[in-house]
Design a protein that fits this description.
The chain has one helix and 14 strands; from the N terminus they run H-E-E-E-E-E-E-E-E-E-E-E-E-E-E. The chain is mainly beta and 207 residues long. It starts with a helix and ends with a strand.
Amino acid sequence: VAGAAVAVYVKARERPSGKLDTQLKGVSQGTADTRAITAPKEKKGHRLVDDKRCWREFGGSPQRTLARPAIDIGLPYRRFWSVGLGSYIEYPPSYCGGILYVNTFGGKTVALNSHDGHKIWSVQGGRKPSTPAIAGPRLIVSSHDGFVTAYNRFNGHRLWRLKVAGKVESSPVAVGRLVYFGATDGRLFCVYVRTGRVKWAYNTGGR
């Protein structure tokens, strides 16, 4: 009987106690650049290898499995290249089309040529203990200062920026035309990839 009571108690605690947030207090959004994005032509001397094996978000998939068994990366025979970014990297980069996207705790988001480590572009912002999410031609970046920003992933041009009341430590996940992320104010956000407009927000009732 005691065991059954404990099981009921634990199960009750697992139920979500939150609700949809229709007020969106502390959320602000600037103007979005919704123009079509095309991949640039390769520059002479900067080879981009498109191996079609993308790692678009933290965990390798929206399910965060951390496993891609179909990819054979081979043995690490030697160091291919290395580059310093001036701060530690808490989360792994995302990757697609020959470009690595790296966040640093110092606030940088950097795009690197995966073949030679050449810096393609770099932007500075709040601390970023997260992995950027690739959403087609856009890169979605979250940061400690409460900003979630979309960049043109080929040149670093800012496309839109959303500000929320809490820190955004979670690595965003893009699925189709939507991107999801959580904030330390207890809200889970779903926004449109193209505009940054909030589709819905759910207040979980806890950090």
